[in-house]
Amino acid sequence: MGSIKMNERIHTIDIIRGFALFGILIANMITFKTPVFTEASGLIEGASLPAGDLNAVLTLLTAFFVDGKFYPMFSMLFGLGFYIFYSRLIQKDLPAKTLFRRRLVFLLLLGLVHLFFIWSGDILHTYALAGFFLPLFINRSVKVIKIWAIAMLGAGIAVFSVLVLLSTLFMQFTVSEGVESIESLRSTELAASTLMATGSFSEIFQFRLTNEVLPILLQVVLSLPTILPLFLIGLYFGKKEMFQDIGGNLRRWKKVMWIGLVVGAPVVGLSVAVTYNVFDWEPFLTAFIGGGLNMIGGPFLMLFYVASIVLITRKQNIERLLMPFAAVGRMALTNYLMQSIIAVIIFNGYGFGLFGQVSKTQGVLIAIAIYAIQVVLSHFLLKRYPQGPMESLWRKWTYSKVQKQSKAA
Fold first, then answer.
1. Is the model's pLDDT at 45 over the cut of 70?
2. Where do the domains of the chain lie?
3. Residue 241 gets which letter from DSSP?
4. Fewer beta carbons within 10 angstroms: which end of the chain, N or C?
């Protein structure tokens, strides 16, 4: 299973996890401040840059460096975390699969609470459901895991791209047939934004339940093929001891870094160019091809980011400089949920009601401010406690039966 010491903490992983949370917050800011379902007019007319030079530049920078790069990073880390968790339990002669399933049940319940009552962009319930497939791969060879990861990622990208194409064609058909109009779609979007900005908790909950939560739950099966292969990349890294023995894998990490950059950067660059209509294609083609290209290039650019962090943190002074990211990463579950809670208070009607009124630049600044608060809180909390509050609850839930059995014995 590999030589992972039971109480050893790998700071590089915490730094990458903290870095991933920052990227996810920047990426999520668009859906914190605009309705999840209001993409219909965009699918028909194509993506457009917002007014204002700084807003337009930040939109392009986010599209290139952030969108579709950090959820793959978080997903990869989940697969790696599974391997480390499982390996340590095997060393302790504990029922690893049973305890991992208990861990997933907690994550699933927490994710559903998050999805229903806080925000529609939850990834925890999807991670939990995809996670149930991970034990099937734990005893497979690295070659088999690699083949499965590549095959499933390719299939997932194909399915996603076809669905985007079909939904875009359907929207264009309904407009051309007079069933809907751009004006009516925009008025629906405006009404949704007004409700989110002024509504009470119960009004927003009822609106989200019908328009966002239920569609997301109905589509969850379609997202599993895109998440599981990213888990397998993390499992692959774990089994190859890429993080446990960084010094012995320097050549591999350099190879990962260069492949990630050489493949990822041009593919993602082309994706941004297509999405924002540099080639003057039909809107249904820009959404279909642009989205598909980002799903290919995003994971490669993610691997470039990960390998770069692994290599630069070999220098102790740089690692010390990046330790604030590690503090956030050690409390990843707590901080992920905290980001949602802070954001809905800022944007929704039962809070400050800024929904639909914040520019791209302001959204990025809000994200930076939220993350800065999390860095400070994480630092001081971890000085007093070994874990964040949600991590502590998660641990207690996971090991409660084992603890009861050991006391009974």
1. no
2. 34-316
3. T
4. C
